[in-house]
Amino acid sequence: MSNAMSQTWYMTQRQLLVFARQPAFAVITLIQPVIWLFLFGNLFKKVIELGGFGTTSYLDYLVPGVVVMSALSSNMWAGMGTLEEIQRGTLNRFLTTPVSRAALMNGNVVNNGLVTAGQSLIIVLLGLLGGADYPGGIAGTAVLVVAAVLLGTVFGALSNALGMLVRERESIIGINTFLLLPLTFLSSAFMAPSQMPGWMRHIADFNPLNWAMVAGRSAMSADPDWGAVLGRGGALLALAVAAVWLSIRTFRSYQRSV
Amino acid sequence: MNTRAPAVQARQLVKTYPGDVTALNGMDVTVEPGTVFGLLGPNGAGKSTTVKILTTLARPDSGTATVAGHDVLRHPDRVRRAIGVVAQNSGADPVATGRENLRLQGRLYGLRGAALNRRVDELLDRFTLTEAAGRQVKGYSGGMRRRLDVALGLVHRPEVLFLDEPTTGLDPEARTAMWDEIGRLAGEEGLTILLTTHYLEEADRLAERVAIVDRGRVVVEGTPDSLKGELRGDAVHVELREAPGEAGRTLLAGALTGLPGVHEALFDGRRISARADDGAAAMPALLAALERAGVTVAAATVARPSLDDVYLRYAGRRYAEADTTDSLALAGGAR
Lengths: 258, 335
Description:
The structure holds two protein chains of two kinds. By secondary structure, chain A is mainly α. Chain A has helices spanning 3-21, 23-43, 58-75, 78-88, 90-95, 101-129, 137-166, 169-185, 198-205, 208-220, 226-257. The radius of gyration of chain A is 19 Å and the shape is elongated. In chain A, α10 (208-220) packs antiparallel against α11 (226-257). Chain A starts with a helix and ends with a helix. Chain B has twelve helices and 14 strands. Chain B has a six-stranded mixed beta sheet, sandwiched between helices. Chain B has a four-stranded antiparallel beta sheet with strand order 2-1-4-5, covered by helices on one side. Chain A binds chain B through residues 3, 6-7, 10, 14, 17-18, 21-22, 85, 87-99, 255-258, and chain B through 17-18, 52, 55-59, 77, 80-81, 83, 85, 87-96, 100, 104-105, 107-110, 136, 152, 334. Chain B: Residues 8-240 form the ABC transporter domain. Chain B: Keywords: Antibiotic resistance, ATP-binding, Cell membrane, Membrane, Nucleotide-binding, Translocase, Transport.
């Protein structure tokens, strides 16, 4: 293992430890998706009769939506952790060691990716327990998980950039509360696109949250549209790369401002 | 004098933060290898900014600096391998245990396997943290946390150790313990320590050489004793009931320095700091002179000169006052 890679792994491990040592925190991050899954699953059960969902069970339709939404809501807080590390002096302590600067940033990305993947898998399994059916099988699920991780990377990186830039919790809290619900409802998370008002559907077309849902849902269906999966997945990947690049730029400007 | 190259050499460092806050304004520091050097000054004087530049965290706007023979701007990586840093907030991971924190720190410097284990055990033992090694750091007391911070800075046996305000926020007992610990470190072979402090007492006690920093540059440098020795005789502090006006000051200064054995009278609000060859002997004449001038004395003391007097002499204001003024002026600004 090269030096930068092993250092990335140490940094990832360190962050995973935070998660592992605070089981209450891990449980809380899972309670929310469970609530969405079973509350909305039951509340909207009958909307499936409207048609356009591509399945006969609303839960089948809902699971990818909740997976992606949870990826968003857990990653958008990444900046809080970064902010805490800055204020506690941890980031500066690492910056005075020879640790690879890339490893510091990559540790964040890898950690968030692993947590998102784990969380996504658990939601898929919970859906399975609740009676959901995934005709796309393991390959389809893998696509959904990758899409969720990419989406999480986008918002995790943006949140980190914001944390380093504004250095105050209130801004992160404000922006997150402002973004979460509109982004979710302006997507196909709960409602089939054909049932959405035209203008909403058009907005949803530009919503990265929706890209992840379309890609994941299609891959998990009986008859995946791989063109759509690749198109949306590619767009997500490009966006993730851009967001990580932006957070690295912000990191450099943070270093200059120390 | 030592003929080896200095462990730390900074020349004419200038650093301005956004908003036109001048943190450093021509800072010069030279630290001889194997010595303890103290940067003394109030909050906002530029001590932390100096440390940030020397530890490769920040870049100066102009000026040069070498640490352990490496240029901080051209070879930051070599500098990072040679230094240990204990910052004001060292940020040990609160969720990880003391041992885990030390192991990670060691790994970042390339320590592995048995060598890493041995070094971590050694440090835990030395800083009496062995018992707490398996506990999460969030449960540590302030003193334990600080000892862990120092241990983290020493994990790779650095040539130069930076201690930024090592005892700020510690209770008196933990502070004394930390002083003893730093004193022991100083005795170790070859280790150079640069410490910053805003406690006069701390600089006096720990540092072989002290530089007094004010408004981004060094105003005077020397051993604590030589600095105090430059102030001949005793310090006589007199507190008046009311602060004299501008004219009153000139008048009083003339009257006091005209007395035999009294050399200097500095005014600072209601306080007068005078220096006398023999403070006790000069006191009656001094009080009589003040009475003749028509001012009422509230209190008077005689003391051996302290670094506080040195500070007043060179920075032109009393230490505690500079501390509050500067920290207010720079509240929220970069230090």
